[in-house]
């Protein structure tokens, strides 16, 4: 799996699942443990296997065509993807058209992106899988976005388009971690505090699992190793 080898946080996060990250963020009282609801793995396979992506968020914001905000004038966002980034594409909730396709992943992969998270629909499913490029999204679609939407901004804070989590924010440079469990955002300012908590929790849980398999009760194991 490609990664941003210049960032020690990215390297350290490779050891942990999204659940481990969320456990640590709950201890730090970050809402919902950073979980981004409704986003699941579609490529390289559908909700299966060991695929995991870790990287800093590179955000793209789509808005309706009639939004007074002007169209982004800085060129196509896909040509500006930083190496090691996770592309996070935001669009208005319940948009029926796809906002991301196979050619986007082809370019992103060449530039060294580790995967894409689409807060909406994407298309060209088989093309994505043939690339072996990781995609996490809400759903699939067939039509392109141009009749409904425009890109308004790149690398700006965006909010998750979810009724469950209306104020959940993804900011450029925050860490995105995604695997078969789902997608988690780790705010950059919490990363160094969260990592030791992940390590401690994983070590405790591994010890618990050994004893539970030998017959120890969950309550007893939890008291012994988590207290």
Description:
The relative contact order is 0.22. The chain contains six helices and ten strands; from the N terminus they run H-H-E-E-E-H-E-H-E-E-E-E-E-E-H-H. The protein has about 230 residues and is α/β, with parallel strands linked by helices. About 30% of the residues lie in helices and about 25% in strands. The longest helix is centred in the C-terminal third of the chain and has 23 residues. Strands 1, 2, 3, 4, 5, 6, 9 and 10 form an eight-stranded mixed β-sheet that branches. The model has no long low-confidence stretch (mean pLDDT about 95).
Topology summary:
Elements: H1 8-13, H2 18-27, E1 40-43, E2 53-64, E3 86-90, H3 102-111, E4 115-122, H4 125-131, E5 135-140, E6 149-154, E7 158-159, E8 169-170, E9 175-179, E10 182-186, H5 191-213, H6 218-226
Parallel strand pairs: 2-3, 3-4, 4-5
Antiparallel strand pairs: 1-5, 2-6, 2-9, 7-8, 9-10
In summary, what is this structure?
Helices cover 29% and strands 24% of the residues. It contains 6 helices and 10 strands; from the N terminus they run ααβββαβαββββββαα.
SSE ordering: HHEEEHEHEEEEEEHH
DSSP helix fraction:
25-40%
Shape assignment: elongated
In what range is the share of β-strand residues? Answer: 15-25%
